[in-house]
Design a protein that fits this description.
This protein is of the alpha/beta class and 277 residues long. It has a domain of 189 residues: BirA Bifunctional Protein, domain 2 (2-Layer Sandwich), CATH 3.30.930.10. It contains eleven helices and twelve strands. The strands form two sheets. Strands 1, 2, 3, 7, 8, 9, 10, 11 and 12 form a nine-stranded mixed β-sheet that branches. A three-stranded mixed β-sheet has the order 5-4-6, with helices on one face. Helix 1 links the parallel strand 2 and strand 3. Helix 1 packs across helix 10 and helix 4 packs across helix 9. The chain starts with a strand and ends with a helix. The mean pLDDT is 91.
Length: 277
């Protein structure tokens, strides 16, 4: 019999609520209150999420963030900033001691991202894992040229036609792995490049020009228009097949909902968290 995991189906939430629920799922799983859990979600409003270690004043143009009506939130995961707009976001929590989970971060990415790989295949897209091979590629992972997540694929992220189609970040806390990431349906390059700081306009133009060869959204490469609901269904099947599990629908209890709302208000809505670096 297949292992049963919880599945929280797609819904739109505020930036603070999204990050609070991701953290709460990690906590509840570490306490044995829930099994491994997969959640799909969207953002209202569209949001720029910062990696835990990013320096907001050095890297982000806050005026442009406000101008575009975007939310701004800091994640508990590392990595670079992500513009969450027309996409499916996923979050998965699983114990570090789960059978077959590799001990290293990169290999754990590969294990979890098997669900993403099969999801893309379900949509008819020929996706494969990125494995940085050249010295230059490996160097760029250590010293990224820009603050933008989709500027380069990391180990075992998903690419189609050599361009990144999904970006993920991971943290390990309390014996639990949390991995969340973005699957792009559309990509607004102008808006994306507008919200970062650059030494000068020339650098911005060069980065934006190069970016076209590095990242792509599903509907830029599919031979037909793919809607969000189809993407949700494909990736739900992808995770079930790719990880050999059965997903059981789950809804938060009233008590859990209150806990998440309080965490959102007291932590993720707070400047002391967002502007900590």
């Amino acid at each position: 019999m297949k292992e049963q995991w919880y599945f929280i189906d797609f819904d739109y939430h505020s930036p603070a609520f999204n990050m609070a629920l991701d953290e709460a799922l990690l906590d509840w799983h570490s306490e044995g209150k829930i099994p491994p859990t997969l959640r799909f979600y969207g953002w209202n409003p569209a949001t720029l999420s910062l990696g835990y270690f990013q320096k907001i004043h050095q890297e982000i143009n806050e005026e442009k963030v406000k101008e575009h009506g975007l939310g701004l939130v800091r994640r508990i995961t590392g990595g670079r900033a992500v513009l969450h707009d027309q996409e499916l976001t996923y979050n998965l929590v699983i114990s570090e001691n789960y059978p077959n989970i590799p001990k290293t971060v990169t290999e754990a990415y590969r294990f979890i991202s098997q669900g993403l790989l099969v999801g893309f295949q379900e949509l008819g897209l020929n996706a494969y894992f990125s494995v940085p091979e050249s010295k230059e590629d490996k160097e760029q992972l250590k010293n990224p040229r820009s603050a933008i997540c989709f500027d380069a694929p990391s180990w075992y992220e998903l690419v189609v036609e050599d361009r990144k189609v999904a970006g993920s970040a991971q943290t390990r806390q309390k014996g639990v792995i949390l991995q969340h990431g973005s699957i792009l349906l559309e990509l607004d390059e102008e808006k994306l490049f507008d919200v970062f700081q650059y030494p000068n306009e020339r650098v911005k133009e060069r980065l934006q020009r190069n970016f076209k060869n590095k990242a792509v959204a599903i509907n830029q490469i599919a031979d037909r228009k793919i809607e969000l609901q189809e993407v949700i269904e494909a990736f739900k099947i992808g995770f079930e097949k790719g990880l050999n599990i059965e997903l059981k629908p789950y809804q938060l209890t009233e008590e859990q909902l209150i806990y998440v709302q309080e965490l959102a208000i007291n932590k993720y809505n707070h400047d002391s968290w967002t502007y900590m670096r």
